[in-house]
Each structure stands twice: as structure tokens, then as C-alpha cells.
Amino acid sequence: MRRMRDTGYHDEDDHDTNYNFDFPNFVAVIPDWPSASAQQFAENYCKQALQNSSMSAFCAEQGNVDIFSTLTQCVEDIKLTGDLDWASSALNNMEQQCSSAVLANVSMFEENENGTLTPPQAFVQKLCLNQCSFKGTCADGECICNDGWIGKDCGVVADTAPVVWDLKRGGLCDIRQRPCEKVNVFGKNLLKSENLTCRVAEASFQNGQWTKSGISYQTSASFESFTEIACYLPPPKVQPNRYHLPGDGTPSYGLYISISNEGVYFSDELLLIIYDSVCQNCVEDGACSLKDGSCLIRGYCFEDQDSNPDDWCQQCLASTNTSEWSRREVNQPPSILSSGNITKVQSDSFTVMIAGHDPEGRPMSFSASQNLPHGLSLSPDGFLTWISHGPDTFAMDIILTDQCGAQDVQAFTFSTIPCPCNNNGVCVPSPGMPIGEGHYDCLCQPGFTGPRCDINTNECQSSPCQNNATCIDLVNSFICTCPVGFIGEYCATLDECALNPCFPGVQCQSTTSGQACGDCPPGYHGDGMTCTQLPSSCNNKYHQMKNSGELATDGIYIIDVDGQATPVYCDMSRDGGGWTLIVTSKSMAGWDKGNILSYNEGSPTTDADYSILGKADRIKVSGASTNVVQYRLEAEAPGRWGGVWEVPLDYSFTHKRNNQTDVILVSKFDTWEYGPRSIGQRMPWIVEDPGLPAVLTTAEMPNQDWYGTVVGSDLGLPIFQDFKAPWIRDLAELPNGIWYWLREIERYRLHVCDHHVDVLSCSDGTVIDVVTAMYGRTNPIICDNGQLLVADCEATGSLQIVKSGCDGRTTCLVRAEDSIFGDPCPGVHKYLEITYNCVAPGTSGSLHGPEG
């Protein structure tokens, strides 16, 4: 059976696929000849037709056509068929022979006005189709039809419908053999007209006959010949492959076909039956019946044993039911092909595919007989995943079910085995081996090898250690024990540090290029190999140089400040030497409360703004063994407009209040006098009042009383422009610089209030050497003055009295009494102020500067 998708599936073949012409057994039919009168009538009719033919005379004149043979053919055709229309066939044959002869004889051609050879005009003018069917006149090759006749050959009666005889293939179209989208109609009186039309009316077989449904169409047609046209049909309702769509199908139906030359007059109707031969037996103009061994389900045809397109488990069983699906008679169950043993190590997780087979090749589905335990999961397509450890062994049934419910059940055993790898080796699936069957290799940790990682790799085997070093094998490593003088992982580097090239206490680091010494210890300065102890201050450095006989010169030195090497400027030549510069004020611009403590700190200088005021308190105690410290102020030039003062050791250089008033003027530069609120009364302090231009000062108010600004800030106001060092305002112009110095001294100082006693003492084999002594009052706030009187008085001879009683002794008791020193200012409470050194026996005098 030819299916719809076969290459031969079309409506164009002209043969009947069911017809078999049997040549050996063919028996010819002998016709009965007509009577003598009928023969005479045929001869007369044919002679008249030849005489009326315009071509017959022309062809007879040319002598290239046997007119008598044409007459004989015409008579024989009419005698055989009894149809006078066959006379036209004989004439057509004669005309074709004549035309071929004329067109083959170029000598008969005529030259036209363009010089081209053409067939003779006498021939062309007489050449008309079918000799105009004897119903018209041939003129210049075209028929001029008589009244009542139409067509190119004038062979059709005007205003009449065509006559139809039959449909091709007897009016049956099997949808399994052809698409049934066209049918050929045979008849006569057919015109090659642009309005050639087919009318198609649907019909169904009811109550033993074909009945029109009332639905009709007009379709296009194509002219095949004067006896055949092709009608194009609507899409057929019989569609075998649409069972999956909703609704019922159509196994067979009819179409009544009629034709028209101009779309007005239609022929009689012929019945075309379109059917599905799988389940329909149809006869020409007759009924269709259900074919034996087939099913008609929902209007669709199926052969016996065909499967339901929507459910393979149902099929057409004609012997059981021809109108409904039956359960499939034979369904072979599937089978599980995989082994029933699945094994893994505890650390492994994997997915394995369980293989199955269905004999009919139908879809299958895997499932388990119970809820999947211990981290198992099973997909319907057979992928089994196992991700947890679970017990050592457990069992479970796995079921394979085919599309129709047939099953295969197989027991599976799941086993967990320990990993056989030693020394923390890791089990990995063996390449190329089936998963889930316990095939594992060992991935060893570094330092181990062997199938089970039980062989320790000997890293010393390659002799990695050099210079006769001893190699000690470890797990995945080794250690080289180096001989003396070599270092490094492989003992390949000469140990320069073995010679102890660095300063004691400095760490030595051997390198490929030698060795590197670390930083010098705190308080030392150098490259790590050579370290020199730093002095704690300029004063300490001054004494080191004096004791070694070196010349103490002014300049930049490195001292130790809190273990850090710090560059400072030292004055080694004036006022006893050993002065550390803490502030240089060369301008009034750029100073503020932030940089007053540290300004250009790494570049000490007397020629530009500079400050290490923030380190002054640490410098003053760095080498102190006494209880006083000295500072020096000078303006305009070194040794000008200032002096040297002495204050208690616990006074701060960064104090922010004006209450550090225990100040002694030791020496004075140039001629100047204290003002009531000026420099002589208090140690300089940092001003916090944002309204004051001073940053570092010794006066309370910016008035005319010797306002002592050490570092100022120019606010752009005229009143502040000359506040810098105004203690010399009436003596010199605004100075171009102020310098602030620090020196710690080896001296003790004490105050004994009126009518009180105190003790001078020295230790470590030293004795007292009194430097200064004053009985009276020069400071209003030292000791209780007993009244609000300001006094400035000193008893003469105070120093000689104290020195005569205390010098050279290790301890000395002193008393503040008028009876000892006299009364320099009666009515005023006085005090005794003494400064002294502790010196070796046999020495005396001040070690630091002149007496004040």
C-alpha cells in the first residue's frame, strides 16, 4: 500500500494503480459492421466533409497528401463508432500530414517585406483547427463561427453546458494512494476558457444512498484537452494522521462534481468518493462498508494490530472490537540488566545508571519498593545517586516498569567498605572501571607512595643537603643539619654570622651576599656592626668631649631621646656649654598650637623656624641626677637681650598655664629690667587662648609691661605686630630671631622658709660645694610672705655664711633666721635659697656657669 508520504503520492499519474493488463490472456472483441446503407451514408458524409475543407483542395494541389486514404479512414471510424464526430479526426490527420509536408519544403516559402522566408500565405490562411468543425469559415487561420456555435473550432453550441461522461479512476480516490486534491473529468463541448469552473458539493452516505449535505464550493479548473479538464478540490476531510486532534474523523465522503465553460451553465453531476482504504470498501456510485480485519474508531481507520497513537498499550483487535481500542494482547515485560550489588567507600558519593531493556523498545520507569534510605535517590530514568555513609550493608528492591505496567523486580545490596588507603590517603574511583562496584585507587598524601600509600618517600635519597650536611628524612620533607659555618635549607650558604660581626646585642642575618646586621640597640647609633653610645643631651655630650680632651664645638649632634637617635643643635661654647636648642623663632608666620611642639624637627638650625619643644621634657631628665634645670632665652643675636634661668627639674617646657613661677635668674644679657608681669616672674608656657597672638609666652597680657612673647603669630592687627620679645621694645627694634635653649645641670636647689631648717647632703663619697645662697625675698610666692606686700631684698654675705658652714661636708644643717643673716627687709617673711653640687673631696666652685 502506498502511504501518504511516499514519493509517488500525487494526483498526476494517468494509470489505474489497481489495473493489471494481462497480454497473454487478452481476447479481442470483433465488432459487428454496420449495414450497407449506413456505410453509404458514412461515405457521403466524409466526402462532403472533405469538399468543405479549405485545406483538402490545397493539399491535393500540392500532391503531398493522399486524399483518398483520408476518406477511407473517415468512413471506417464512423462505421466502427457510429459517431459522425470521428470525421473531424480524419480531417485533422489529413491536415497534420499536409502541414508537415509544407513546412518541410522550404522551396515553397515566400519572402516577406522584411526579407524573411515564411510559409506560403495560401497555406497559412487555410490552416484552422478542426476545419472549424464544419460550423464556420476558416479565414487567415482563424475560425469565423456560424450563428449558435462558439469555440476556436466552432464545435460548441452556444449557451449550453458541457457534456460529462466520466471521472478519472471511476470516481474513486483512496486517500492512502493520492492526496485527492484534484480530479479529471471527461466530456465534450469543453472550451479553453478563462472562466472554466468546477462546482463541488459535499455528500454523505445515509440510508443506503448518497445525500448532499448542502455545502458546495466553486473551484478553479484547468483545460487538459477538448475532452478533459482537471477540477481542483477543497482539502479532503479524510485525514488519517489527525487522530491526536479533538473530534471525530471521516473515513469516507462524497463530492458531486459538475463543470461549466463560463461559470453559468453547469454540466450534470458526477459522484467522486474519497475514502480511507485501510478500513473502507467503496464501489463506484455505490456505498462504502467496513473492511474485514480493520477498526473504525472515532471516525479513523486502523488495520488489525495497529496501536493507539495516544496509548501504545491499546491496539485494534478486529476480532474483538472494531469500534473501540482493545488492551494489547502481547506485552513482554522489561528486564533489569545491571548487577544487584553496589559498593562504595564511606567518603565517596556517586551517581550510577541502572541499565534496563524493554523487548518492544517502549519507555520504562525505575522505582524503589520502599522509601529510599541512607542518602539514596533514584530517578525514573534509572540514575541512582548515593551520597551518605549509611550502615555497612543494606538491601532494597528496585522495580522496572514498562509503559503498559509489566515489571521486573530485582533485589539490590548496598555495601559500604572502608577505604584501604593508609597514611590519610584518599580513595578515588579507578579510571576505566565501572562505578559502584568497589573499584578504587589510592591518592596518597605528599611523602607517601605505593598502591595503598604505605611506603614513605625518602626525600634524602636525592642527597639534597650540601657541604657534608646530614640529611634527616621526614614525612614529605627533610631537614639538613648544617656543619659549623654553613646555613640555609640545604646548608649551601656560608654563615657569615658565625664570626659574630655585629655589635653585641645586634641581630645578625646571613644572606646570599654575606650578612646583614640589624639596628643598633636603643641609645646607640651606627650601622649595626659598629654602634656608638649616644649622649642623652648636649650637656652630656659636652662632658664626654671635655673628659676625652676633644674640642667641644657648636653644631649638630646626635643624642638619644627615648632610645631614638635624634639630631639636635648644640651650643658648646657659651654660658658653660652643653645647651640643647629647642626653639628657633625667625618669623611670626606659620606657627600655631600644633607645630609649636614639632617644626622641621629633622633639620635643627639657628637660622630658620624650628622646634623640638615636645621632646624638651624628656631631654631635661635624660641624664639628671639633681633637682634643677636651666633654660636660656636670647633675642636679636646670640648672647643678646635675654639671660639664663634656673627652675625645678619637675617644671615642664610644654606647660599650658602661667603658674610655674619658682624661677631664678642666673645671668642676664644686656641691660634690661623686669616689668610687673614680665619674663622674670614665670617660665614660658603655651597659650591656649585663641584670641592671643602668642603661641609660647612669659606674660599674661599684651600690654606695655615687657610682654614676653617667645613664639608669636601675626594676626594682621597693628597692636600685635611688635609683640615679639617686647622686653626690648624700648631698647631695640623688633628682633629677627629668638632662641630658646635647655641645659640640665649637676646641681641641687632647696628653699628653707623663715624660722625653718633643712639638710644639704651628698652620697657616694662626694661632698657639698655650695654655689649660691640668698636670704631674703625675690619671689613673692615662695614660702608664705605673711602679708600682701611685694618685696625684693637680699641679705649681704649670705653665700659666704653658708659656704663656710657646709663646703666639704657630706651633710649640713641650715636654718633661715635673721639672727644668722641679718634682716634685709623688716616685716617681710623671708626664705633661704641655696644651690649646691656634690663633688669629689678637695674640689670646690661652680661647675656650670658664673654665679648669678
UniProtKB/TrEMBL annotation:
Q: Which domain of life is it from?
A: Eukaryota
InterPro entries, alphabetized:
EGF, EGF-like_Ca-bd_dom, EGF-type_Asp/Asn_hydroxyl_site, EGF_Ca-bd_CS, Fibrinogen-like_C, Fibrinogen_a/b/g_C_1, Fibrinogen_a/b/g_C_dom, Growth_fac_rcpt_cys_sf
Alphabetically, the GO molecular function entries are: calcium ion binding; carbohydrate binding
Please report the stretch or stretches of sequence annotated as the EGF-like domain. Answer: 415-454, 456-492, 493-532
Give every Fibrinogen C-terminal domain span.
529-582
What is the name of this protein? von Willebrand factor D and EGF domain-containing protein-like
User: Which PANTHER family is this protein grouped with?
Assistant: CRUMBS FAMILY MEMBER (PTHR24049)
Ordered alphabetically, the record's keywords are: Disulfide bond, EGF-like domain, Extracellular matrix, Glycoprotein, Repeat, Secreted, Signal
Disulfide pairs here are 444-453, 482-491
- What is the source species? Branchiostoma belcheri (Amphioxus)
